[in-house]
Write a structure and sequence with these properties.
Structural class: alpha/beta
Radius of gyration: 21 Å
Order of helices and strands: EHEHEHHEHEHEHEHEHEHEEH
Number of helices: 11
Distance between the termini: 57 Å
Number of strands: 11
Helix content: 40-55%
Strand order of the largest sheet: 3-2-1-4-5-10-11
Largest sheet: 7 strands, mixed
Length: about 325
């Protein structure tokens, strides 16, 4: 069979290991093709046969060697027709789509329209793909956010300041939650738990009186600022950290600084957890292909690697809830 592999949406640490591992397993019996720039690679026919030797030098780096884009191949019927025609001409029997909800939704449509068999692999630093406990890239992003926060904390202590760290996270506040727990932040703001900023300012004043510094972690997704949207309807985020810092300083009179590591936390070499997760996901994707079990997403549930129908995870986000929300409330509930 001809098997194509693509990475769509935002880059995430561990993608290269997943692509390399899957290629290494597949090439023994099948032809493997890299689809460059995500789904756009089929629209532009940027598809090239690859071997594991082509990928090994990049396997342990961040980013994605085969590039990515936020392209929706089914944005309109005219584009969908080009996509279908090109896919037929390319002759790909199977596509392994590594991405988040948007990438996987396009994979589901590809399967439903009978254009190719698909297998999905969840990745996103936001960890918000429904149906899996963890996605490729999340652990690395959290560890990088922790490094930034701990470094920032030392200067807050030295100068007796208040600090705000803004981390990525659209609808889901997983990065902010984990960063806040790991650094014992004085307050954490996540999209799932709206909080009046006066509550944050009051908590900061209380903490500052006791020790002379304070730390707040905020998820970028708590506020949108408009602007252009991508092909899946998402607007750009970022900037709420600076706004919150200015608000805290104005209300409390305490000198407040903000840092926004932004894309830095998603560009690091993958952690051991993400490396092993990528290998496990790729191995199960290979097993699904060998068994003809298509239309499935590989998932991590309770330590096990399983397959779930892609259609069951679409249109949903894995948000902070249940045990994790109770943990949030324990430390930052009001």
């Amino acid at each position: 069979m001809k098997v194509g592999i693509l990475t769509g949406g935002g880059d995430a640490p561990g993608l290269n290991i997943a692509v390399y591992t899957l290629t290494k397993l597949l090439e023994k019996k099948h032809e493997v093709y890299a689809i460059y720039h995500g789904w756009r690679g089929i629209l532009d026919k940027e598809v090239r046969r690859v071997t594991s030797k082509d990928l090994i030098d990049f396997a342990f780096t961040g980013g994605t060697f085969i590039r990515t884009s936020r392209t929706n191949p089914f944005k309109d019927e005219a584009r969908a027709e080009v996509f279908a025609r090109n896919l037929k001409e390319l002759g790909l029997d199977v596509i392994v789509a590594i991405g988040g909800d948007d990438t996987l939704s396009a994979a589901a449509q590809t399967q439903a329209r009978g254009l190719a068999n698909v297998v999905g692999v969840p990745k996103t630093i936001d960890n918000d793909v429904y149906g899996t406990d963890y996605t490729i890239g999340f652990d690395t992003a959290v560890n990088e956010a922790i490094k930034v926060t701990e470094n920032f904390k030392t200067t807050l202590i030295s100068h007796e300041r208040v600090g705000v760290v803004e981390v990525m996270g659209r609808e889901a506040g997983w990065i902010a939650l984990f960063t806040g727990l790991a650094t014992m932040a004085d307050f954490v703001l996540i999209p799932e738990r709206p909080v009046n900023w006066d509550v944050v300012a009051n908590r900061v004043k209380e903490v500052y009186r006791g020790r002379g510094w304070a730390l707040v972690v905020v998820s970028e997704g708590i506020k949108e600022y408009g602007g252009p949207r991508d092909e899946f309807g998402h607007s750009r985020l970022g900037g709420v950290g600076n706004e919150l810092a200015q608000y805290i300083e104005k209300v409390t009179g305490l000198e407040t600084r903000a840092v926004i590591p932004g894309h830095v936390i998603r560009g690091a070499p993958p952690t051991a957890f993400d490396r092993v997760l990528a290998v496990r996901f790729a191995t199960e994707a290979f097993n699904a292909i060998e068994g003809g079990d298509f239309g499935k997403m590989i998932a991590y549930r309770g330590g096990d690697i399983v397959r779930v129908p892609i259609t069951e995870v679409l249109g949903k986000n894995r948000l902070v809830s249940g045990y994790w929300m109770r943990l949030y409330e324990t430390y930052w509930g009001t």
